[in-house]
Write a structure and sequence with these properties.
Structural class: alpha/beta
Radius of gyration: 27 Å
Number of helices: 5
Number of domains: 1
Signal peptide: 1-22
Keywords: Signal
CATH superfamily: Response regulator
Helix content: 40-55%
Number of strands: 5
CATH topology: Rossmann fold
Strand content: 15-25%
Strand order of the largest sheet: 2-1-3-4-5
Protein backbone atom coordinates (compact mmCIF):
# COMPACT_ATOMS: atom_id res chain seq x y z
CA UNK A 1 0.00 0.00 0.00
CA UNK A 2 2.84 2.39 0.84
CA UNK A 3 4.45 1.54 -2.51
CA UNK A 4 1.26 2.46 -4.42
CA UNK A 5 0.99 5.78 -2.58
CA UNK A 6 4.63 6.55 -3.38
CA UNK A 7 4.06 5.67 -7.05
CA UNK A 8 0.98 7.94 -7.26
CA UNK A 9 2.87 10.78 -5.56
CA UNK A 10 5.82 10.36 -7.96
CA UNK A 11 3.53 10.42 -11.03
CA UNK A 12 1.69 13.53 -9.80
CA UNK A 13 4.98 15.26 -8.97
CA UNK A 14 6.42 14.49 -12.40
CA UNK A 15 3.28 15.78 -14.20
CA UNK A 16 3.31 18.96 -12.10
CA UNK A 17 7.00 19.50 -12.90
CA UNK A 18 6.41 19.03 -16.65
CA UNK A 19 3.42 21.38 -16.58
CA UNK A 20 5.41 24.08 -14.76
CA UNK A 21 8.40 23.76 -17.07
CA UNK A 22 6.29 23.82 -20.23
CA UNK A 23 4.57 27.04 -19.13
CA UNK A 24 1.13 28.23 -20.11
CA UNK A 25 0.02 27.68 -23.66
CA UNK A 26 -0.87 30.92 -25.36
CA UNK A 27 -3.22 30.90 -28.30
CA UNK A 28 -1.71 31.68 -31.67
CA UNK A 29 -2.48 35.26 -32.67
CA UNK A 30 -3.40 35.80 -36.30
CA UNK A 31 -3.45 39.37 -37.54
CA UNK A 32 -5.33 40.46 -40.61
CA UNK A 33 -4.22 43.51 -42.53
CA UNK A 34 -7.47 45.31 -43.29
CA UNK A 35 -5.84 48.51 -44.54
CA UNK A 36 -6.27 47.49 -48.17
CA UNK A 37 -9.93 46.54 -47.84
CA UNK A 38 -12.56 48.56 -49.65
CA UNK A 39 -13.97 51.22 -47.33
CA UNK A 40 -17.67 52.17 -47.29
CA UNK A 41 -18.57 55.13 -45.09
CA UNK A 42 -21.97 56.11 -43.80
CA UNK A 43 -22.58 59.69 -42.72
CA UNK A 44 -25.67 61.24 -41.21
CA UNK A 45 -26.70 64.24 -39.21
CA UNK A 46 -27.70 63.48 -35.64
CA UNK A 47 -31.22 64.66 -36.51
CA UNK A 48 -31.42 61.79 -39.04
CA UNK A 49 -30.08 59.09 -36.71
CA UNK A 50 -33.27 57.04 -36.69
CA UNK A 51 -33.35 56.96 -40.51
CA UNK A 52 -29.67 55.97 -40.59
CA UNK A 53 -30.01 52.82 -38.45
CA UNK A 54 -31.62 50.65 -41.16
CA UNK A 55 -29.01 51.84 -43.67
CA UNK A 56 -26.20 51.07 -41.20
CA UNK A 57 -27.70 47.61 -40.73
CA UNK A 58 -27.74 47.10 -44.51
CA UNK A 59 -24.12 48.31 -44.75
CA UNK A 60 -23.03 45.85 -42.08
CA UNK A 61 -24.84 43.06 -43.90
CA UNK A 62 -23.05 44.02 -47.13
CA UNK A 63 -19.67 43.72 -45.39
CA UNK A 64 -20.38 40.30 -43.93
CA UNK A 65 -17.83 37.84 -45.28
CA UNK A 66 -16.33 40.41 -47.65
CA UNK A 67 -13.14 42.46 -47.62
CA UNK A 68 -15.08 45.64 -46.89
CA UNK A 69 -14.56 47.97 -43.94
CA UNK A 70 -17.63 49.89 -42.80
CA UNK A 71 -17.39 53.18 -40.96
CA UNK A 72 -20.06 55.48 -39.59
CA UNK A 73 -19.84 59.18 -38.87
CA UNK A 74 -22.63 61.03 -37.13
CA UNK A 75 -22.46 64.80 -37.29
CA UNK A 76 -23.28 66.24 -33.86
CA UNK A 77 -26.39 68.30 -33.39
CA UNK A 78 -25.10 71.84 -33.33
CA UNK A 79 -26.09 74.99 -35.12
CA UNK A 80 -22.41 75.91 -35.62
CA UNK A 81 -21.23 72.70 -37.28
CA UNK A 82 -21.52 72.74 -41.03
CA UNK A 83 -21.64 69.28 -42.61
CA UNK A 84 -19.30 70.01 -45.55
CA UNK A 85 -16.02 69.39 -43.64
CA UNK A 86 -17.38 66.07 -42.36
CA UNK A 87 -18.31 64.88 -45.86
CA UNK A 88 -14.97 66.08 -47.27
CA UNK A 89 -13.14 64.20 -44.53
CA UNK A 90 -14.58 60.93 -45.86
CA UNK A 91 -13.03 61.63 -49.25
CA UNK A 92 -9.70 62.23 -47.49
CA UNK A 93 -10.11 58.93 -45.59
CA UNK A 94 -10.24 57.13 -48.95
CA UNK A 95 -13.79 55.91 -48.59
CA UNK A 96 -14.55 54.06 -51.80
CA UNK A 97 -18.24 54.74 -51.33
CA UNK A 98 -19.83 57.48 -49.22
CA UNK A 99 -23.42 56.90 -48.15
CA UNK A 100 -25.31 59.90 -46.80
CA UNK A 101 -28.63 59.67 -45.01
CA UNK A 102 -31.16 62.43 -44.61
CA UNK A 103 -31.98 65.82 -46.05
CA UNK A 104 -29.58 67.78 -43.85
CA UNK A 105 -26.54 66.60 -45.85
CA UNK A 106 -27.96 67.30 -49.31
CA UNK A 107 -26.01 70.51 -50.01
CA UNK A 108 -22.75 69.20 -48.54
CA UNK A 109 -22.91 65.96 -50.54
CA UNK A 110 -23.82 67.85 -53.72
CA UNK A 111 -20.83 70.19 -53.32
CA UNK A 112 -18.43 67.37 -52.48
CA UNK A 113 -19.67 65.23 -55.37
CA UNK A 114 -19.26 68.13 -57.80
CA UNK A 115 -15.65 68.72 -56.68
CA UNK A 116 -14.76 65.00 -56.60
CA UNK A 117 -16.22 63.47 -59.78
CA UNK A 118 -14.39 60.15 -59.29
CA UNK A 119 -15.75 59.67 -55.76
CA UNK A 120 -18.83 57.43 -55.57
CA UNK A 121 -21.81 58.44 -53.45
CA UNK A 122 -25.15 57.03 -52.43
CA UNK A 123 -27.71 59.35 -50.96
CA UNK A 124 -30.68 58.12 -48.97
CA UNK A 125 -32.97 61.08 -48.99
CA UNK A 126 -33.50 63.83 -51.54
CA UNK A 127 -32.01 62.77 -54.90
CA UNK A 128 -28.90 64.42 -56.30
CA UNK A 129 -28.66 64.44 -60.07
CA UNK A 130 -24.95 63.92 -60.64
CA UNK A 131 -23.28 61.03 -62.48
CA UNK A 132 -21.30 59.90 -59.42
CA UNK A 133 -24.32 59.90 -57.06
CA UNK A 134 -27.00 57.21 -56.81
CA UNK A 135 -30.16 57.85 -54.80
CA UNK A 136 -32.16 55.24 -52.91
CA UNK A 137 -35.25 55.13 -50.78
CA UNK A 138 -34.63 54.52 -47.05
CA UNK A 139 -36.81 51.41 -47.31
CA UNK A 140 -34.69 49.84 -50.07
CA UNK A 141 -32.06 48.09 -47.93
CA UNK A 142 -31.37 45.43 -50.56
CA UNK A 143 -30.41 48.13 -53.09
CA UNK A 144 -27.90 49.56 -50.61
CA UNK A 145 -26.42 46.09 -49.97
CA UNK A 146 -26.14 45.42 -53.68
CA UNK A 147 -24.61 48.85 -54.41
CA UNK A 148 -21.97 48.45 -51.67
CA UNK A 149 -20.96 44.98 -52.88
CA UNK A 150 -20.87 46.18 -56.49
CA UNK A 151 -18.73 49.20 -55.57
CA UNK A 152 -16.31 46.96 -53.66
CA UNK A 153 -15.99 44.54 -56.57
CA UNK A 154 -16.48 46.48 -59.79
CA UNK A 155 -16.87 44.44 -62.93
CA UNK A 156 -14.16 44.84 -65.52
CA UNK A 157 -15.42 45.82 -68.96
CA UNK A 158 -15.44 42.91 -71.41
CA UNK A 159 -12.39 42.62 -73.62
CA UNK A 160 -12.97 43.04 -77.33
Amino acid sequence: MAGAATLVAAVLLSRLTIALLAGPRTPKVVANNISKNFRACLINDQRDASAAWPVWSALQKATSGAAINAQRIEIPKSSTSAPLPYVNSLVQRNCGLIISVGPHLHDAVTTTAQHNPHQRFITVGPPIKLPNVRSFSPADKSAVISAVRQAAHPQSPPRT
